[in-house]
Amino acid sequence: MAASEQDRYAALLRRVEAEIFGRRGEGHVNPSNERMSALVDVLGQPQRAYRSIHLTGTNGKTSTARMVDELLRAFGVRTGRYTSPHLNSVTERVVVDGEPISDRVFVEAYAELAPYIEMVDAQFDVPLSFFEIVTALAFAVFADTPVDVAVVEVGMGGSWDNTNVIDAEVAVVTPIGLDHVEYLGADVASIAKEKAGIIKAGATAVLAAQPVPAAQELLRRAVAVEASIAREGLEFGVLQRQVAVGGQLVTLQGLGGVYPDIYLPLHGAHQAQNAALALAAVEVFFGAGAASGPIDGETVREAFALVRSPGRLEPVRASPTVLLDSSHNPAGMIATVEALSEAFDFRRLVGVLAVLADKDARGLLDLLEPILDELVVTQNSSDRAMPVDDLAALAIDVFGPDRVTVEPRLDDAIDAAIGLAERSDDDILSGAGVLVTGSVVTAGEARTLLGAS
């Protein structure tokens, strides 16, 4: 496509984004699938044109979806992948054969969708949301491409999530913790009950190790709908792992056998767990198990070596090292802190933190305090962002006033953190680091500012 044509579609995409972002955003949930069901009905049920793998959980969904996608494509399967939220561009949410769709494809798909959006809006008191529209757009693109299988991450929850109009043969549940409690429930059992709704009759549920109350709800649902079950720690899991340059070397127990010497270019035990989940899901998809033996190990190794997960302890600069991380709840931050301690040997580490107002900022601060020398608090551009002064008050209470710097703008905050990381009486520049974290929005905006997008 010529540069002028690219510019034209980039401008059109900005116009489309303004239209759909002007609707109810992802932070304003109206728990119902009525509108989504009506929309896919008038579109002719595009989500039924291909097989699907559905993922839910509190943390690890996007990384696991990326791994499932990479594995399937390595075996010659044409894939669509739908994940959320995005880091830099809305087109990142809709991926075909490993690449985000182009601005042109997104714009043209939206133009085809627009008349049907008006039809459905006219039927309900509550109009279609941003997420409902983009989800339908993804399903339609996957059908038009066409893909062989869609790897679909829920937006929130499970039963009433807008993605749950698919009838997936494989349901993957990553670890469940407390998040979105105002919508999903105040304890892990309630949250698990809602997330269990993606497990459909006759499907196979691939379950990460869970807190006991969550595991009970997931198993109860699987039994009720006569779904098969594969559980981490019983049918599959991580047998061995060791830190390697740029990631880790793992041995995975799959449903069909053992897969040794897998290089995973991601940090932390949680990413090894995600890899085990992804492998089990793909084995189920291909019908592999104890009776049939493993899928091709060399292909599995090649696929995992290509996995990337932007915004998940992603290094984007050296001297000092700057890492971007999307952790936004305590469970995710625990995994981040453990991975940092294992994979990096910083002698001085400065944090940059910006969070959304509905998140447990105090919980994040408590986890960060032992590993950070200093903290710069700031604010991202989201309309749901916690005001910087409110975050600063919490941070000072946890870190003390001498270790907290306040910068209202994210770009200034990153610059300040780099300066603080470099500042020392001895030469520790090679051991200095900056961690930018607290939200997917924060990580995405930092990627743009640092030229990593």
Can you characterise this structure?
- With 453 residues, the protein is of the alpha/beta class.
- The chain has 2 domains: 3-305, UDP-N-acetylmuramoyl-L-alanine:D-glutamate ligase; 314-449, Protein-Tyrosine Phosphatase, Chain A (Alpha-Beta Complex).
- It has 15 helices and 17 strands.
- The strands form 3 sheets. The chain has an 8-stranded mixed beta sheet with strand order 4-3-2-5-1-6-7-8, sandwiched between helices. A 6-stranded mixed beta sheet has the order 12-13-17-14-15-16. It has a 3-stranded antiparallel beta sheet with strand order 9-10-11.
- Helix 4 crosses helix 5 (130-144).
- The longest helix is centred in the first third of the chain and has 19 residues, at 3-21.
- The protein is globular and about 60 Å long.
- The two termini are 21 Å apart.
Secondary-structure blueprint:
Layout: H1 3-21, H2 34-42, E1 51-56, H3 61-74, E2 79-82, E3 94-96, E4 99-100, H4 103-121, H5 130-144, E5 149-153, E6 170-173, H6 181-184, H7 188-195, E7 204-207, H8 212-224, E8 228-231, E9 237-244, E10 247-253, E11 258-264, H9 269-286, H10 297-305, E12 314-317, E13 321-324, H11 330-343, E14 348-353, H12 361-368, E15 374-377, H13 388-399, E16 404-406, H14 410-422, E17 432-437, H15 440-449
Helix pairs in contact: 1-4, 2-4, 3-9, 3-10, 4-5, 7-8, 11-12, 12-13
